């Protein structure tokens, strides 16, 4: 092992730099409005617009308790990110639909993420990226994540 080259330390350093860089970005300011899980839920709803996504789906996909999801969805509806629409086959079920505001926010986020990914990949060859991702997969496996 090379002196002063510890995998955990290097991952921590890069993580800190990414967090610091992200914290200064426009994307961070916009995501602060929706906060973590809301952004993921909006992304999921946008990606699954052709399906009848209901509260139970969100609970299952994100492993979140019913009461927590209920509160989150109420706030997202209040802030204008989602609408609840009755499902034809069962009036008790409400389909979760992203609003135009959510679609626009999602589009901006995806574009910012694409730009950030492009910046991170700058001057790194495809071969180096393949090696990088293979090594990360092995590290995740070594620390107990199922692959």
Mean pLDDT across every amino acid position: 87
Structural class: mainly alpha
Taking the sheet with the most strands, its summary is: 2 strands, antiparallel
In CATH terms, the superfamily of the domain at 26-115 is Winged helix-like DNA-binding domain superfamily/Winged helix DNA-binding domain
> Uncertain runs with pLDDT below 50, 5 residues or more?
none
What is the helix fraction of residues, given as a range? 55-70%
Strands, count = 2
**End-to-end C-alpha gap:** 26 Å
Beta-strand percentage range: 5-15%
- CATH domain class of the domain at 26-115: Mainly Alpha
Q: Which fold name fills CATH's third level, the topology of the domain at 26-115?
A: Arc Repressor Mutant, subunit A
Report the CATH architecture of the domain at 26-115.
Orthogonal Bundle
- Order of secondary-structure elements: HHHHHEEHH
Helical stretch count? Answer: 7
Strand order of the largest sheet: 1-2
- The general outline is elongated
Radius of gyration: 19 Å
């Amino acid at each position: 092992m090379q002196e002063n080259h510890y995998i955990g330390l290097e991952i921590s350093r890069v993580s800190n730099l990414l967090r610091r860089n992200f914290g200064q970005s426009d994307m961070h300011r916009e995501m602060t409005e929706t906060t973590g899980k809301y952004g993921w839920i909006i992304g999921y709803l946008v990606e699954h617009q052709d399906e009848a996504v209901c509260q139970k789906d969100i609970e299952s996909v994100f492993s979140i308790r019913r009461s927590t999801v209920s509160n989150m969805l109420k706030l997202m509806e209040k802030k204008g990110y989602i609408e609840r629409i009755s499902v034809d086959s069962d009036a008790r079920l409400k389909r979760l639909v992203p609003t135009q505001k959510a679609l626009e926010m999602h589009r901006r986020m995806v574009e910012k993420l694409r730009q950030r990914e492009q910046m991170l990949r700058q001057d790194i060859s495809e071969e180096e990226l393949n090696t990088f991702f293979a090594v990360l997969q092995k590290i995740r496996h070594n620390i107990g994540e199922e692959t």
